[in-house]
Amino acid sequence: MSDKRGIVRKHKRLKLRFGRDYPKRVAFTEDLSGCGLFIITGQPEHPGSVVLLQIVLPDEQEVIVRGRVQWAKKVPANLVRVAKKGGMGVRLTHFESGEQAYKAFVAELRR
């Protein structure tokens, strides 16, 4: 299956929380770019859902951003670590805080 994205994502595991109204579920990123990311989770939201993400950067800065779920693949919770792409792809739509820190972090990954 070919990648339909025009933007290259970089593999990076970051801790985050997510939810529709409040970021309550804990998960991790697998890859990210300046405008989207993939979240590893056994409980993805449905495509089209708007989610609130609370991302913790390696320097402990916190990023709060809203995004729209582009696609999701649900796998049993006990298989999340071994299944391919169990989780959801999210397009970032609106930063509430930490936009500059996030974009600087992604730019640093590209070097």
Provide the descriptors you would attach to this structure in a database record.
111 residues; Thrombin, subunit H; six-stranded antiparallel barrel; 45% strand
Q: Secondary-structure element sequence?
A: EEEEEEEH
* CATH topology descriptor: Thrombin, subunit H
Average pLDDT score: 88
Number of separate domains = 1
Q: Looking across the biggest beta sheet, what order are the strands in?
A: 2-3-4-7-6-5
Q: What Rg do the Cα atoms give?
A: 13 Å
CATH architecture: Beta Barrel
Major sheet details:
6 strands, antiparallel, barrel
- What share of the residues does DSSP label as strand, in percent? over 45%
Count of strand segments: 7
Helical stretch tally: 1
The CATH class is identified as Mainly Beta
CATH level 4 superfamily: predicted glycosyltransferase like domains
Poorly predicted runs: none
Give the CA-CA distance, first to last residue: 27 Å
Oligomeric state of the chains in view = single chain
Helix content range: under 10%
